[in-house]
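Checklist before submission:
- one chain only
- standard amino acids only
- sequence pasted in full

Submission:
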Amino acid sequence: MAPKLFPEGFLWGTAISSFQAEMGRGEPASASDWWTWVHDAVNISGGRVSGELPEDGPGFWELYPGDLRLAKEELGNNAVRLSIDWARIFPASTEAVEVDVKKNGSGNISGIVVDEEAMRGLEDLADVTAVRRYREILSEARRLRLKVMLTLFHWPLPAWLHDAVACRDDVANAGRKGWLDEATLVEFAKYAAYAGRRFGDLVDLWATVNETRIASEYAYLRGEFPPGLRDFDLFMTAYRNLSAAHGFGYEQLKRWAPSSGGGGTKVGVVAVLQYYEPENPDDPRDVAAANFNEYLWNEWSLNAVTSGDYDMDLDGVAGPGERLPHLAKGCDFIGVNHYLRQRVRHGESRLGEHLKGGDCSDIGWEIHPQGLRLVLDWVWRRYRLPVYVTENGIADASDSKRVRYLLGYLDELHRAVSEDGVPVRGYFHWTLMDSYEWNRGFGTRFGLYCVDAATKERVPTRTVPVYREICSSNSLP
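Returned file contents:
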């Protein structure tokens, strides 16, 4: 049987998040809301967080040369997806740096202009040591001929923007409310402009925000991420602002980031798209619940990003006050993070009940490779933008399912490209090595390499040679 070839120039890589992977060697990233959150005694005693700490992580901040060589030489990657930590670059407030904030007739922000004077002010506030290290990391990736996708916001906010503990205890009277405050959009625009100026010559693809849905849902609806609240209205406010942040980041990167290659600066957004399936496809109530999940979790934010449709009352239609095309600044590609199928049964709320069972990962996420093809088909039909699979992987501490998982999902990805015509340009496996899995700590193991906690040695899983063969040959066996 002939090998299943992928398109020429297809990107094969792994994805890493700064807060999850950097610490463990070198200077810790201690200026963010997530740092405060996981060290808080109330959160630890109450079980909101594991009690394990990110400063015991894999140490990418210092060990990056070896990790990038693993990606290039042992895995055969030609690309890597990284993120930078906003709070490392700006550990102190940038609020005093004046920019031109334009507002519409309703008093909402419609545009943000960062000029050269503002850029000089940002230069004075930036942590030069952190900027230098990020340039060293990106330069090493380029030296190894790894194309770089760089994510601006992969969840931690500077603590000067978000006092997560104060918001947890009394959000109405808290002073620093993070994504609940529209002023955070202004600071994000400044950060994006500065990052574009400082790192653009070393970046091939930019991602503004990682998973607007998860960053807002888990913080304001599930109560698991900082500030640990359960309030649907607050969730929708954060969801809106995180979606709008993409547009303001997009504008700044297009203005300030020099293109590292031909074709201009490419800027996209990363969405987590799961496959929602009614438990009983013959029961219209289950179908309605599954469809609403798909709309709220998969479609809502992408509609906002691409069209400026902010359906705040969730009636399925963006009414006159919800159509905000001035917030749709552009989007060059959609990054798709995909992990599981979610079977849905109707219930008391419109979201219904999410059922567990079947063949699952260590954390109960159902393995269903066909779901990747289905969401890729959907996102291409709906938005007609190039696609990258920016995360896909499995929590599998025993390393007993990862090879089967990888081959199954990549086979469906190949079918989406070869049979359905979806323009998928690359695949980034989550993740290179075991790292800090947010509130779960270190027990959840997604890495292609295990990490010895004491020595930081990277130990390859059985999946490493399999992925190397795929990446090196640009094909599936």
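Reviewer check: Residues 232-256 form the longest helix (25 residues).
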